[in-house]
Design brief:
about 25% strand; about 20% helix; binds heme C; Chalcone isomerase; 7 strands
Length: about 180
């Protein structure tokens, strides 16, 4: 009897610890999750731009209202709450085709990831389900690693967009 009470007590403790330490769960889908309204944000390029670094796809970049002044004026760092969404379209003979993946940079407090200026990285599959999200030291660190080339612009490249950034990479034209 005593053993069972002990087991039960430790189970309850374990559960309480697990609940306290985990972040409140966010909706993991693009359609109903925290970035669902991205198509209503400011669109940074009139026509999709070819992107060799995101699966040779065509991409359109959107910036939310919190991040817009920094993006337009080139005044970095982006404030916490900024979000940048890059929507990709398949490369069909060097023209934008069907829906591709959706990439997100979400600015949190600087302490969230000091190595990555506080950016949180998210990638959704073309059907809007979550592919992955995270920061330095996890499986999504490859996002930050490549974007650190653009550290001078707070990790933002802005290639082919109206964002005001210092050039950090040559343009990536669509070569047939
Ligand atoms: C090999 C380098 C590389 C990797 C890896 C990479 N990116 Fe990018 N990213 C770029 C470049 C270059 C641009 C500028 C536009 C372009 O050429 O596609 C960009 C643009 C973006 C943008 C628009 C803001 C900006 O910087 O212009 C977002 C959002 C983004 N990437 C998210 C991600 C996420 C999320 C991942 C990981 C799943 C990722 N990227 C992985 C190179 C990379």
């Amino acid at each position: 009897m005593l053993t069972w009470r002990l087991v039960l007590a430790s189970l309850v403790t374990a559960l309480a610890v697990a609940t306290a330490s985990s972040q409140p769960a966010r909706d993991p889908t693009l359609k109903t999750g925290p970035f669902k309204d991205y198509r209503q944000w400011a669109r940074m390029n009139a026509t999709p731009v070819f992107s060799a670094t995101h699966g040779n796809a065509f991409v359109v970049t959107y910036v939310n209202p919190t991040g817009l002044p920094a993006a337009r004026a080139g005044k970095f760092p982006f404030p916490p709450g900024s979000a940048i969404v890059k929507e990709a379209f398949e490369n069909q003979g060097c023209r934008p085709g069907g829906q591709g993946a959706v990439f997100v940079m979400e600015k949190r407090e600087p302490g969230y990831d000091p190595d990555g200026n506080g950016w949180h990285w998210v990638r959704y599959n073309p059907d809007g389900t979550l592919w992955g999200e995270g920061k330095s030291g996890g499986p999504m660190d490859f996002c930050r690693a490549c974007h650190s080339v653009a550290r001078v612009n707070d990790f933002v490249f802005g290639n082919g967009t109206s964002m005001k950034v210092a050039p950090t990479m040559p343009p990536t034209p669509c070569v047939k």
